Amino acid sequence: MSDDALTRLDHHYQSMPPVAAMQLRIAGFDGDRLRLHAPLSAHVNDKGCAFGGSLGSMMTLASWGLVTLRIEAAGLDADVYVADSQVRYLAPLFADLDVTAEADADADWEAFIATLRQRGRARIGLRAWAGLPEGGVATEFTARYVAIVRDPGHAAA
Predict the structure, then answer these.
(1) How many domains is the chain built from?
(2) Domain containing 90 — which CATH number?
(3) What is the chain's pLDDT, residue by residue, as a tens digit (157 residues)?
(4) Which of 89, 95, 70, 88 is nearest to 143 (CA)?
(5) Which residue range forms the structural domain that includes residue 60?
(6) How far, rounded to the nearest angstrom, does the alpha carbon of residue 9 sit from its chain's CA centroid?
(7) Is the pTM of this model over 0.85?
């Protein structure tokens, strides 16, 4: 994956005013996992820990970004939507928000891309989490994302 793809993703994130206000940045991408970071100071709640809505949003954005990067790497142009999601809050996070997203264990990127090419629409399951500085997980997220090719004639390419 090129640095250009990460730059485009970051510009897309920053073009959305609510996301720009989150002060998030891309912390890393290894082809399988996308990591985002945001300062606690922009997401602190009345208890002094990370706001639950911010954690849910960060995990939604990381998962969306991962799907977007994989589609772009396949040479496709598609809109990506979250179809459904579930968040579990396991422990308060009193540190910066560091979120990681990856495909579910039973997800298959090759099958997802093949279906997207063939049908112009595909779904894939993702999972994300916010880690605790001392180890462990503060918040878990599971979701299904849908991609729809913007130009169906381009899907067969």
Answers:
(1) 1
(2) 3.10.129.10
(3) 568 999 999 999 999 999 999 999 999 999 999 999 999 999 999 999 999 999 999 999 999 999 999 999 999 999 999 999 999 999 999 999 999 999 999 999 999 999 999 999 999 999 999 999 999 999 999 999 999 999 766 554 4
(4) 88
(5) 3-155
(6) 11
(7) yes
